[in-house]
Amino acid sequence: MSRLARPLHPLALSVAMALAAVPLLTVQSSFAEESSAQRGFQVPAGDLSQALNNLAEQAGLVLAFDAELTRGKRSPGVSGQYDIDGALNQLLAGTGLQALKLSGDRYRLEAIPDSGGAMQLQATTINAAYQAESPTGPVPGYVATRSLSATKTDTALIETPQSISVVTKDQMRAQNAESLNQILRYSAAVVPETRGATASRLDQLTIRGFLPTTYLDGLRMPSSRDALPQKDAFDLERVEVLRGPASVLYGQGSPSGVINMVTKRPLDVPFHEVGVEYGTFDKKRTTFDLSGPLDDQGVYSYRVAGLFDDADGQVEHTETRRQSLSSAFTWRPDEDTSLTLLGHFQKDPKGASYGSVPAWGSVLHSPTGRKIDVDYYDGEKNFEKSDREYYSIGYAFEHHFNDVWTLRQNARYLRAEGIYRSIYNSYLQADYRTSTRSTIATDVDMDAYNLDNQVQAKFDTGPLQHTLLMGADYQNTSTDTKAGYGSGPSLDIFDPVYGAPVTTPAFATDATSRSEQTGVYLQEQMKWDNWVLLLGGRYDWASTDGTTKTLRTGAKSKSSLDSEAFTGRVGLVYLFDNGLAPYVSYAESFNPQSGTGYGGSVFKPTEGKQYELGIKYQPPGSNSFITAAIFDLRQSNVPTMDPDPTHLCGNGRCQIQDGEQQSRGFELEGKASLSDNLDITAAYAYLDNRASKSNSTVRYAPISDIGVGPAVPVEGTTTYGVPRHTASAWADYTFRDGHLKGFGAGAGARYVGSSWGDTANTLKVPGYTLFDAAVHYDIPNIVNLNDKLRLALNATNLANKEYVASCYSYSWCWYGSQRTVQASATYQW
């Protein structure tokens, strides 16, 4: 049996199991009572959007409405015995809104017409069942209450027994975030921009001390340094951070968790936006976003968004440029079926610099008495090149067979190409000022296929409410990389003179690789009274095949790695009536490893295990959400030095998988959108990350005449670039009445503690505090009653603090981003 054919059996088995279970679960199912029947409702007074969410969940409704209708409004709540129509009328009393019944369990909210017959707004259709907030749609303010990422089902965050946070579009807009690094600046336990100012080219960050796995619309994004797709924040509706192992739903990946970016979807109300932006470093950016229905029945809707971005890099002689076009089309032939097609094209013909500076003269005092300029460039403008291009096409399909069964299928094909040429600092010579430089040239082509099939059943058995999820997914990534390496002319880091000829290194190798993963998973969410139990299990088959051809000799070497793994998760939440929800959870992950030990033994996958204890707080009647968690996360099967000195591999001692990396810590995060004026987000994290097991006894390994460099971690040492303390806070206030109506301002502070700059823990990188600010002014009714002009001015690193974001060794450190000031104008109609 071929390797390609083998993974199809689990998929067929999963589908067969799902179909076989239909008769049994259908008999056991129950659904919401008819709207004419009375029942008990308990919805406290408070924010109208949250009150509608509570009522919709209690009654089993789908509510459709424009989010702007409810923004800033409060509900008197509802308590007692009502039919659905009566409960809605009571909940909407005094809000100026009314509920119109569309079908048995579907209602639309509209403004109550005045005596002159005021215009009625069309509704934003909410595709998800049983709640008013969609986990893929817009959220007014900073507080999202539901998510798909943690369970792959539409689940309330407070019922999820694992740490998860959501950054909404409103928060991105207020902070003018344009990349994943910038979006997550104010998220707990996330250290973004670990490569400082070069982060404009790559989104490199850590969560709980490990590199996370990135997903887009629930499907994995491929990783390749020189052809890595980088999603622009303008194309995103929200970003969700699930902390801790997540292999039970997503398969192989980092133990730190999952970052899931959710793209913009078509809207059922007309929406049009154009924007322009100009700022420091000659920043020029234009955007457009158009969406709405294509027919009166709401069967077809569309969305098209694009941008052009051009700027100078912070580092001298560098530039960035981006052109992007996204499109989405939704077909909804009936209330139970939807198909959304998603397409994207992006070209980054200029990617700034990926260069670095030595520690001497940046973090450490140089014996020369001089400091390296913050905009120092270690490359050559006429040689360096970073040209990336990628496109993707996919779809999201959902069909409700009945009140119990739902089928979903998500798929995507992605093609990425990258051309990279660079000359970079390799190490500092003994005079503390001459940089020895190396060269690299790569051409990368990458194809990635993703498919995720899900069958969901919602049913009751007596007092127990069940959400059962069965799934099978498949991913295939093929990469072809031509690479060459060489040496280049040296450079004086204090008085650089550019223009020396640089020879492009000839391609030395042509490496092709293909990685596949097939997984089947089963998850049960069981609710009884105030208890919520989450159980999940998954089995994966993963394989990687590679061929490396030496172009000079024509010799070929092949490698193959097959892995299988079972991962699980269990969690328990108790929902107090006052909004408190303590929880406990356990989760696992696995990640295949390349390489071999003594005698050619193949490395096993690393394994992640996490114990987490936390509490979530969603105060009734308040649009706010607070989470706190303590955790113990361990990654085992980490390669470390073979204790037997006679076991030699290549030019040195073999490695054996006896190592372990541990992260233990505490995190706190809160978000609030209070009334219609104030939005707040704040976070703090304490992290103790260290090599808890290692056979290495060598504290450091010399790499040049100066300083020390990386080595296999010694037991007790901390991973480079991982600070022990991080904290952030941001607040934005907007006047809705009076002479200052429409005017708002925001301010924030970010603290990143000191970190080690090498694996031997001999180089300490100081911590830093940065300040951000924004002012904005909204001018409504420019041309008609439905348009708005927003003027904004955003500044980051307001004090223009010079700092080093992190170091990888004494040779490679990265300056952080300097002050940026950007003015923007956005017109919506």
From TrEMBL:
Residues 1-32 form the signal peptide. GO terms for biological process: nickel cation transport; siderophore transport; zinc ion transport. It comes from Pseudomonas rhodesiae. Residues 61-112 form the Secretin/TonB short N-terminal domain. One of its GO terms (cellular component) is cell outer membrane. This is Metal-pseudopaline receptor CntO. SUPFAM superfamilies: Porins (SSF56935). The keyword DNA damage does not apply. Its main location: membrane. It is a multi-pass membrane protein. Gene3D superfamilies: 3.55.50.30, TonB-dependent receptor, beta-barrel domain (2.40.170.20), TonB-dependent receptor, plug domain (2.170.130.10).
